[in-house]
Automatic annotation (TrEMBL):
This is Acetylxylan esterase. CDD domains: Endoglucanase_E_like. It holds the Pfam family CE2_N. InterPro entries: CE2_N, CtCE2-like_dom, PCW_deacetylase/CE, SGNH_hydro, SGNH_hydro_sf. Residues 149-295 form the SGNH hydrolase-type esterase domain.
Amino acid sequence: MSYSDVLLLGLVMNVVDSKYFNYSGRIIKEDTFAYLGFTNSKVEFYVKSSSTVTSELDISFETKLNGEVNNARLRVMIDNSYIENVLVLDKQHNSFIIPLPEDELTHKITIIKITEAAMSYAKLNDITVINGTILPYPYQNDSRIRVEFIGDSITCGYGVYGEPDSEYDIKEEDGTVTYAALTADELNLNAQYFSVSGYGMYLKYDGDLEGVIPKIYSYTNYFIDQDALYNFKEFIPDLYVINLGTNDSGHLDELNNQINFKNTYLEFIKNLKNINPNAKILCIIGTLCTNVYPFINEVVQTARAEGITDIYTLELPYHDVEKDGMASGHPSLVSHQKDSKRLCKKIAEIFHIEY
């Protein structure tokens, strides 16, 4: 294998070199650095290890600390299995050594940020393969259904590892085991995620008008760079799954908020259709609230009356706390699994695929 086709032993790579590294999600790239921000944003690459000496990955990250309860957390997958330890960025500069299998085979490495953008970022500085090589990424045409999940803490996976009444700590969050990620795995979807805890469509959970998804949706990552607008051509979904309204729900007893919620939701749908006219849109709600679906259904009916096509709804049942448990006031892993099954069935119905 020639020098141009592999990374020589111990050479530090430019992690934004697309010849070797394939990113998924809304990624801010600067010079030789890449920021993993949003839930389930990830980077993939391939390495060949050695059978005669121990091969290792030396990976360094930088982060902006936001209190211990908000430390960025990442999972690393070698081929189809996660390594045991979660990478916790508890210092401004972090370095991790990850052993590779002792063989001469090619292994796929995936690094996934399992916590959300609003609380932290993981700035990937460099990756070095010790006693091994990094191979060019084998890009292939991806014919899978492309889906973007747009949501709040439920889509972030907040609380999935928590006790029912546990206090807030990001260590209880893991975006890879949410209803959304489980659905993507089950249906083999090409998925991206845009979710922020506490954010709503019109109102944040505390009534703040600024903590809303429509305000930040046009940015690559508003929490890192408020000037960097997202290039929507980077990922063109076949389907948007919107799971918003839970944080608005506590304020929808007021008529004015109801009207503004519905108007904002309709405008957001129109914006998605303007960005991507051929996409389908699925509006879901219900796991943590029971009063929002009628408003969303009304919005969808209005959208259809105005000529918007390929738009659907799905009301999820309120989570069964007594039977399935609860995690830090949020859906348990069991609830996420059940909602995933419901969502899989709906998406299969929309795309006329067997499930």
